[in-house]
Amino acid sequence: MDLVPAPSGENPVKTPMVEVEAVDVAEQLNAEAVALEEVASEFGSDSDDSDGDDALSEDGEIIQFMRDDQLQDVPGACTLEEAMAYRKRLHDIGKAAFVEETLVRETVTAKKLCTAFGIKLPEFLDGAPDEAYHPLLAIAISREFSRRPKLSQYNTIDDAVKLLQEAKNIIVLTGAGISTSLGIPDFRSKDTGLYSKLAHLGLSDPQEVFDIHIFREDPRIFFSIAKDILPTEKKYSPTHGFIKLLQDKGKLLTNYTQNIDNIEANAGVRAEKMVQCHGSFATATCVKCNFKVPGDAIFDDIREGKVPECSACVESIATLKPQGLKRKRSSTGNQKDRKEFEDSSDEDDYEIPTPGVMKPDITFFGEDLPDEFGQRLVHHDRELADLVIVIGTSLKVAPVAEVPGILPRNVPQIYISRTPVSHTDFDIDLLGDSDVVVSELCRRAGWNLEHHMIPADEKVDITPVEGYESRHVFKVVGA
């Protein structure tokens, strides 16, 4: 079940890390069970939820979401203008009335309406009757209705600067984009991201490199690319310096980082001000005996593309004598008879134990996030935060991607990244290299953000995005 905005009095559920844009249908339907029942009843469906689950999850089919700029490429999809109108209407009149006005009155098909809410039409439903799209639409409607609406009073650069100056408890949510200026690749950039370089591994999906089940089956896959994301030097970017500056000014409530490079610590962000949502390379743990070591103890092996072995396991195995080893069993499951032992070597006679693999303490897809994540967010930060700044992340990995929706809707939110997101409504979008954006914000706020990567004479041009009052593009003059 994904981490979604909890009703009053309830807490979000602790969940494994999953990809928001590729959610297993059965899991997603369970997460949206209430909405599915409510909307399905409006559709007049006489089938139960379990039937819908089975049909939709058959052959491991998945729900995929698409961006607004992809609508024009989908035959029969809503136009962007139609999609925006349907979304607004849903928020204005509520789910039940919206379903009555659209599907019950047959003013639009469920298939087309799915596209209005960003659902990529799955191939396995090609040629199916329109009713087959109802469960997908139920998910889409519930997902859209739970979205936080933009606060209309915040739109300009001056608004963003004033929010920075006046805020006292800022949550900063960061992703891989804040480290790319240091030469560390992000994951999803088209040509330079890590996922774009993994075709040679023969995986059906590049994110399988970080799938815990595949790691357990063959850790060599992960360690073949781990060196590319391994922190190498004690350096940090201007954006990391910006987070430290917020801390120094007593404004940083918590930095929730999805990054595993531990660079925030290099910048001086204190451990008590940071939650490493997906773990980090700072430590590593044996998958067999749970022996833990500092992360740099296995860095040499990682840099060479080797699978690091547990030294504690190696020592334990070295002390074992043949009588302490398990005898191999025959193919029938019985121990070998005496004649077989007489004809075999010692190596064949016993199962030789192998040392465990040292896994960096990063959170893989399919693993639970640290307890601290949910506990701190729900029981501490949610009631204190007065500003949210999301930097360098496309918010595609749940449950961290759901953080903006969990916080009180009256808390202003600023988004800083190269490209906007369409599945979350921020109050102000500041688009461009995060280092450039934060340095310009600091200049306008009268703050001194010192960093050798920020030129003393840097001038930044800011242009509004046509059609968006609150979206602005930052670009260094002459770049």
UniProtKB/TrEMBL annotation:
Give the record's keywords alphabetically.
Metal-binding, NAD, Transferase, Zinc
Q: Note whether Ribosomal protein occurs among the keywords.
A: no
Cellular component annotations (GO), alphabetically ordered: nucleus
Region (Disordered) residue spans: 324-353
Task: Identify the cofactor(s).
Answer: Zn(2+)
**Keyword Nucleotidyltransferase set for record:** no
The residue ranges of the Deacetylase sirtuin-type domain are 150-455
Instruction: Tell me any Pfam family this protein matches.
Output: SIR2
Instruction: Enumerate the residues binding Zn(2+).
Output: C286, C289, C310, C313
The protein's GO terms of the molecular function aspect are: histone H4K16 deacetylase activity, NAD-dependent; metal ion binding; NAD+ binding
Active site (catalytic residues): H278 (proton acceptor)
Q: Which residues form the signal peptide?
A: none
As for family, the record states: Belongs to the sirtuin family. Class I subfamily.
User: Which protein are we looking at?
Assistant: NAD-dependent protein deacetylase h.t1.c1
